């Protein structure tokens, strides 16, 4: 008996040693390998688009597809961006196109060419010779086909989030961008939020030490919005799909601060969800609909481990009554940043020089820095992008200004022939949570490998940085 016990301990110790070693190395050593999905080979002669630069455009001529709640706001913002021309507008519904024309008229701009009335009218917009950029804000299932078609017509393309929903779409979008060498950007606005961008700047300047983990989320009860989406597209998608189907607001800021595909890469993820309750109950109460096989979990959690041993934790919950949150928490060896539920920083005393902020003596690693210190830090580390356009962004608005900053940067980079802030591999990495978390959930939360969407180039660029003309 005693001998058996000793043998079990030795076996357990050996197992533990192999697991510990495996997890520390991040190689997944041991017999439990992540589920892999196919990675199509890069076609011969096709080149990656890391750091892609396109010829400078004095005036960026834009066509908009999808003029619902979000698209209309984009048209309005573009009336404030110098060096742009709104050439064409498209929506299924003529009255929505007309409402956007009114925005142009109000801004003293000429009416744009109008496309509506058919599911395919947007293709005519993409074919126009006088457009440089196609800007897409339709429902989720149209984004990838529209991006692909626009690039095939020789246009740069940008799409609202999420820009692609399946792995097949993601690889098609990447291959089209690489084949055409056109810019393809996902319109992720949250990376331009004032707190997120300031924190990114602090992290890039080493104030937080080595960044070890980041959290992000989309926690937003959508009961006030469900009835507003054209053709009920958002509810339909949630009914049919399990997994984190709206991950990009959390993923974007987390991946930028962790230099994903600029020196690190995500290796694998695991996901877990709680059963769906509130949305099926809403459907019964509001619409008298009995949905017994509602797929999207009440709350979905995803954990990701990177090649360099960092972690990301992402949450999705559009069902539960609780305050809006994108979480955005960043942990480094010298400090911590949190946007939700409380916005603030905690730092070790040696993270900032004595005369850099007021009341330096109040800085400790185990509580939030006082409000005046936080203000001092945010002023000192204000990002150059915000220094340049904060005032206009706050005036024009759109989620407190970050929407305007996003559009402004897209146009600025196109005008100056610079790489865009977000490339097609960011699009792929931030969108892949939808299909990969579904795969994990369908397999009892098994680890699922995150493909290297750059196909071998994730370590070519050393650190994420925004490009500037001078
Ligand atoms: N980044 C953000 O903060 C943010 C905020 C809200 C919405 N969004 C995203 O914006 C997108 C649009 O959301 P929304 O709230 O405006 O939805 P919406 O339903 O109000 O608008 C979608 C529009 O697309 C149009 N459309 C659909 N199919 C079309 C086609 N074939 N041709 C032309 N037009 C077509 C519809 O008629 C509708 O007007 C979604 O991807 C959503 O996730 C992002």
UniProtKB/TrEMBL annotation:
Domain Gfo/Idh/MocA-like oxidoreductase N-terminal: 60-185
Domain of life, source organism: Bacteria
Signal peptide limits: 1-22
Cofactor(s) this protein requires: NAD(+)
Keywords attached to this entry: Glycosidase, Hydrolase, NAD, Signal
UniProt record similarity statement: Belongs to the Gfo/Idh/MocA family. Glycosyl hydrolase 109 subfamily.
Full protein name: Glycosyl hydrolase family 109 protein 1
Species lineage: Bacteria, Pseudomonadati, Bacteroidota, Bacteroidia, Bacteroidales
